[in-house]
Design goal:
The complex is a heterotrimer of chains A (480), B (420) and C (119).
Chain A (H helix, E strand, L loop, with lengths): L3 E6 L3 H10 L6 E4 L16 E2 L10 H20 L3 E2 L3 E5 L5 H14 L5 E4 H7 L9 E5 L3 E3 L1 H14 L3 E3 L4 E7 L2 E6 L2 E10 L5 H5 L9 E11 L10 E4 L9 E4 L5 E4 L3 E3 L9 H14 L8 E12 L5 E4 L6 E5 L5 H20 L22 H10 L6 E3 L4 E2 H9 L7 H8 L12 H12 L18 E2 L5
Parallel strand pairs in A: 1-2, 1-12, 2-9, 5-14, 12-20
Antiparallel strand pairs in A: 3-8, 4-8, 5-7, 6-7, 10-11, 11-12, 13-16, 13-17, 13-18, 15-16, 19-20, 21-22
Chain B lengths: L1 E8 L3 H12 L5 E4 L15 E3 L8 E2 H14 L3 E3 L3 E5 L4 E6 L3 E12 L3 E3 L2 H4 L9 E3 H11 L1 E2 L3 E5 L3 H12 L3 E7 L8 H8 L6 E3 L1 E7 L6 E6 L12 E4 L2 E4 L3 E3 L2 H6 L3 E2 L4 E2 L12 E3 L10 H21 L10 E5 L3 E5 L2 E2 L7 E8 L3 E10 L2 E11 L5 E6 H5 L6 E6 L1
Parallel strand pairs in B: 1-2, 1-8, 2-5, 8-22, 10-18, 12-13, 12-18, 13-14, 23-30
Antiparallel strand pairs in B: 3-4, 6-7, 7-8, 9-19, 15-16, 16-17, 20-21, 23-25, 24-26, 26-29, 27-28, 27-30
Chain C lengths: L1 E6 L8 E7 L2 E6 L4 H12 L2 E2 L2 E7 L5 E6 L3 E2 L3 H7 L4 E3 L7 E3 L9 E3 L5
The chains are: A alpha+beta (480), B alpha/beta (420), C alpha+beta (119).
Chain lengths: 480, 420, 119
């Protein structure tokens, strides 16, 4: 009578990591996602940082999973072939009177189990990062901090889960959940499903989903963060992730190289009512530029190629809520996953899978496939290997996105792999086509042609990111 | 490794004119590398008329203008490769390129002509706040969709930026059945040609709002509307002037940026004002035997001047190939300085020994000036003083200098170009 | 006497023109820097005309669309009729620059010709 043993609501990093860890077991599982692709909410628009783990309160679940996630990330990046780099981070202290706060961070890091932390003096900081403000007094250096491609991480987890048998249903939104004997009934816009267990990884909507089944209410605030992304020519401005000393609204504005060599500045922190309110504002962007300049000198803000904003799923107590919801047996929350959620996701997945497998008495499977290959980037090959590849598949000789040098071969790979891309953003997140300095001006018509051809769609069905986000609306003169 | 005397990067109007000219000046071994599927570059999507009055003494459309040069190149048997991306150029003039048929390959050139053109500034570069839905296009992307693919990007259109592509697209979208509601321009003057304001906006009753910009973008999936506001003299929105326009499409025509990633990679010295290479009277960059022309050098308004400039680059490259490396000796460089309203000059240096009988110095002004003079000082002496009713940033200016004139000033170090 | 101010669109210079008229008759044109300006001004105040450019669909060719134009100016008031006349036109490849697509568009006596080669 049950369609699934477990249904995971949400295809962001938390849901995808849970799905991947659960796919180690003999289980009938399904991820349902209201958007057209994985990695469409909080997971797609964040700082892309792998935090060391000195921020979260001692003894908190957040602290534990952060440090564990950080330790797991490197190995995971090899298994699942996504870009990750331990570039280290600096927390900048500008005033001597703030030293106690910096010391607190250090002490907390030590208690949390963060390795290799050091407090550097002004000279050491400037030697390490010449573009730090001259006003720097000291900094907390965490060599274990890193940067990751959040799209690749999320997509890799989902693909690997899918290959190991987890189904994915896209464009599927949960409208209501009813308790039934031995499980739950999920009412969605695309039909009704019965499942023994539910994992609530619904990001900013996790409170709404939770409150459908549990009397003990939770509340998630969408906390918006605006970012500016700078051209790759500015990517070397700093080599480490530069944080400000934390204030009331989180970790403040950071400046960091991205894993692909751009420079990222952000985020702001503004609480918003609308859980889809990802609009940037002029005040936000202005504030960002002002704040970022406090720690890093001569930021080349003229080289901004895009600005965007993401929503953090902020729970009132600023703690991860992972576990069975009160009065709702078999309903496992994975809520309040805000920063350091990206860092923690491998550990979150582990924890969720552990809870669910015990609940359902699941057995591990013998044929679990632990590794996955990402979209092949031919520029990482040797000249000889690249020549062989192009001979076999000439599409790898055809550059579509000239800013990021993405070939048709990579786009075909992105479309035809498990959970393949079906929109321009889907292609972009898998290949970086359109993510460069011209922001898809040149390549979007060409990517549209490829999508139309490969997916048997018309040009008029191609969307930016699913739903009603159509790129073109008709043919020339069709209303004349 | 294949070898060519001259390799030209880009088969648009600049690359074609440079190739034709190099061939006519006696170099046979020429290769054009073009990344698109046909020669002609951006002209293929510029289907409007108004090209060629200088070059052919008649008014042609973009594809017709390109067609004339493509025919000439064919008659001269100039070799070219399509769908070919140049990945990298080394300072010793070894190019790495790639296409479907040949895979990754290297070419050794004696001379290189950079003719890669330019790209459009994107929304991101402007930091326009709001949502990021579908329906926001750079004007050139929309132009390609409409003119090459026959697809209509939207039905109710607002255009930000009054550059020529934006103005042209206002008329194009109107012809294809869309309603263009308004063109907004941040500056107090238009960035496009006056004739385009008349024949693309005025003819169709499309309002042009100067000193206005987009301050908000609404719509989560597809664009639903934008808010315009007036800006003050520093370009900041004036509170209380906001005006909402419902629309499903926003086209951006907010400037062009020369595409010099390859030039930067090989160490060509750049002019931060033009974002193009610094060149001498031969349109040669700081790397001997590497020339630049067209929009990669500085953004032009008129393709006719691109062709003229590119022909000069082609000829100079041919001379370079024939006389050999190290021919640049004798004489001295006169530095051209752009001051008082003149933003830059191309070229930045002139060596009278190496120049032709005359040279056209092109430049842009930084503001609108009425009843002014365009002046050139040779050292302290004012030599050129030309009255102009109006000069504007949207329209490229020029002065002509002759060899004879420069030779009279034997030790001249500096020429200053200014608006008075 | 009536004065009208125009911007010349004959070439990219965009000269500001002043036309003095006596009823429907042009008495004087000033502000132009070449002969084309005078011709344009006289026409613009009596019978304004424009070249119309657009595209039509191509079948079986190397491209989906071919660009076209009116071979000569057409009266301004006829522009939209010219555009509408192209709505359902489909040509078969190959098409060459100068090929006549419509011999007399919207009763203007002017032909629509291709402006691009599509093989």
């Amino acid at each position: 009578m049950f369609d699934y043993d477990v249904m995971i609501i949400g295809g962001g990093v938390a849901g995808a990591a849970s799905a991947r860890e659960l796919s180690r077991y003999k289980v009938k599982a399904c991820v349902i996602e209201k958007e057209e692709d994985v990695c469409c909410g909080t997971s797609k628009a964040n700082s892309a940082i792998v935090h060391a783990g000195y921020d979260a309160a001692e003894g908190s679940l957040m602290a534990k999973l952060n440090v564990r996630g950080n330790q797991m990330m490197e190995e995971l990046s090899r298994e699942l072939d996504f870009p990750f780099k331990k570039n280290g981070s600096l927390v900048i202290c500008l005033h001597e009177e703030d030293m106690p706060s910096l010391q607190t961070l250090y002490d907390r890091g030590v208690v949390n189990g963060v390795k290799e932390l050091r407090i550097l003096n002004k000279e050491e900081v400037l030697e390490m990062e010449p573009n730090i403000s001259d006003n720097v007094y000291a900094a907390l250096y965490a060599p274990t901090a890193g940067i990751v491609c959040p799209f690749s991480l999320n997509i890799a987890l989902a693909e690997n889960a899918n290959v190991n048998g987890v189904e994915f249903k896209f464009d599927t939104e949960v409208e209501d959940i009813k308790r039934i004997d031995g499980g739950y009934k999920l009412m969605t816009n695309r039909g009704v499903y019965q499942t023994k267990c539910i994992v609530n990884a619904a990001g900013v909507y996790a409170d709404k989903i939770h409150n459908m089944v549990s009397e003990k209410r939770i509340h998630i605030t969408a906390r918006r963060g605006d970012y500016c992304l700078l051209d790759k020519s500015a990517g070397g401005h700093v080599s480490k992730t530069i944080f400000a000393l934390p204030g009331k609204y989180g970790k403040g504005v950071l400046v960091t190289p991205t894993i692909h060599g751009n420079l990222l500045v952000g985020p702001t922190a503004i609480d918003v009512e609308d859980k889809e309110g990802t609009n940037t504002t002029r005040e936000g962007l202005d504030l960002l530029i002002e704040k970022a300049g406090m720690n890093v000198r001569n930021l080349p803000m003229r080289q901004v190629i895009t600005s965007f904003s993401g929503l953090r799923a902020h729970e009132d107590d600023h703690e991860f809520i992972i576990g069975e919801a009160e009065g709702a047996e078999g309903f496992i929350d994975c809520a309040g996953i805000e920063s350091p959620g990206l860092t923690s996701c491998p550990a979150i997945g582990e924890m969720v899978a552990d809870i669910v497998s015990k609940k359902l008495g699941l057995q591990k499977k013998e044929d679990f496939i632990a590794t996955r290959k990402g979209v092949l980037d031919p520029s990482t090959l040797t000249k000889e290997a690249r020549a062989v590849l192009m001979k076999e598949k000439p599409a790898y000789g055809n550059i579509i996105c000239r800013c990021e040098m993405v070939t048709e071969g990579e786009i075909l790979d992105a479309i035809h792999r498990p959970l393949g891309a079906r929109s321009l953003d889907g292609v972009k997140r898998r290949t970086r086509a359109g993510m460069g300095r011209c922001q898809a001006g040149f390549c979007s018509p060409r990517t549209m042609e490829i999508l139309a051809r490969e997916c048997n769609m018309s040009m008029f069905d191609i969307t930016k990111s699913g739903g009603n986000s159509k790129i073109v609306v008709g043919t020339n003169k069709d209303t004349l | 490794m294949k070898q060519y005397d001259i390799v030209i990067i880009g088969g648009g109007p600049a690359g074609l004119a440079a190739a034709v000219s190099a061939k006519k000046n006696g170099v046979d071994s020429i290769l054009i590398l073009e990344r698109d599927k046909e020669l002609g570059g951006i002209l293929n999507q510029c289907i409007h008329n108004g090209f060629g009055l200088h070059t052919f003494k008649e008014e042609l459309t973009g594809p017709e203008y390109a067609g004339r040069f493509i025919d000439q190149a064919a008659k001269l048997d100039i070799e070219y490769k399509l769908n070919t991306m140049v990945m990298d150029i080394r300072a010793d003039k070894v190019l790495t390129a790639m296409n479907r048929e040949d895979g990754l390959f290297e070419i050794q050139a004696k001379a290189i002509i950079l003719a890669m053109g330019c790209r459009e500034r994107s929304r991101g570069a402007l930091n326009i706040p709001g949502y990021r839905p579908a329906g926001i296009f750079s004007a050139g992307t929309a132009q390609r969709l409409v003119n090459m693919e026959g697809c209509l990007p939207g039905r109710e259109v607002v255009i930000l930026g009054s550059g020529d592509i934006g103005l042209i697209m206002a008329r194009r979208m109107t012809f294809e059945g869309a309603k263009v509601k308004v063109v907004a321009e941040l500056m107090p003057y238009s960035g496009g040609l006056k004739r385009n304001i008349v024949q693309c906006l005025d003819d169709y009753g499309i309002p042009l709002k100067l000193s206005h910009t987009v301050v908000d973008i609404k719509g989560k999936e597809r664009l639903e509307g934008i808010t315009l506001a007036e800006v003050d003299s520093k370009g900041r929105p004036v509170p209380g002037t906001e005006e909402y326009y419902s629309c499903d499409t926003l086209l951006l025509s907010v400037g062009l940026i020369p595409e010099n990633e390859l030039s930067n990679g090989m160490g060509v010295e750049m002019n931060p004002v033009t974002s193009g290479p610094k060149v001498n009277e031969s349109l040669e960059t700081n790397i001997e035997g590497v020339f630049a022309c067209g929009n990669v050098l500085h953004v032009h308004d008129l393709v006719d001047f691109v062709s003229e400039e590119a022909a000069a680059a082609g000829k100079n490259a041919a001379v370079y190939v024939k006389t050999g490396v190290g021919k640049r000796s004798g004489g001295h460089d006169i530095v051209l300085k752009a001051v008082d309203g003149v933003r830059y000059t191309v070229p930045v240096t002139i060596n009278p020994e190496h120049m032709e009988d005359s040279i056209t110095v092109r430049f842009r002004v930084g503001n609108v000036y009425r009843d002014c003079y365009v002046s050139a000082y040779f050292g302290e002496e004012r030599v050129i003083h030309r009255k102009r009713q109006i000069v504007a940033p949207g329209e490229m200016e020029e002065i002509k200098l002759t060899k004879e004139q420069l030779m009279q000033y034997a030790d001249l170090q500096e020429i200053t170009v200014k608006i008075e | 006497m009536e004065e009208r101010n125009l911007t010349c669109i004959s070439c990219p210079m965009g000269c500001p023109l002043t036309v003095v008229m006596n009823g429907a008759e042009v008495v004087n044109v000033s502000g132009n820097t070449c002969r084309r300006g005078e011709v344009y001004a006289k026409k613009e105040v009596t019978n304004p005309t424009r070249i119309v450019t657009s595209t039509v669909r191509v079948e079986g060719g190397s491209a989906d669309m071919v660009s076209v134009k009116t071979k000569e100016d057409v009266p301004k008031g006829k522009i939209f009729e010219c555009v509408e006349a192209l709505k359902d036109v489909i040509v078969k490849a190959p098409v060459h620059i100068g090929d006549v697509i419509i011999s007399d568009v919207a009763g203007t006596g002017v032909a629509i010709v291709a402006t691009k080669n599509v093989e």
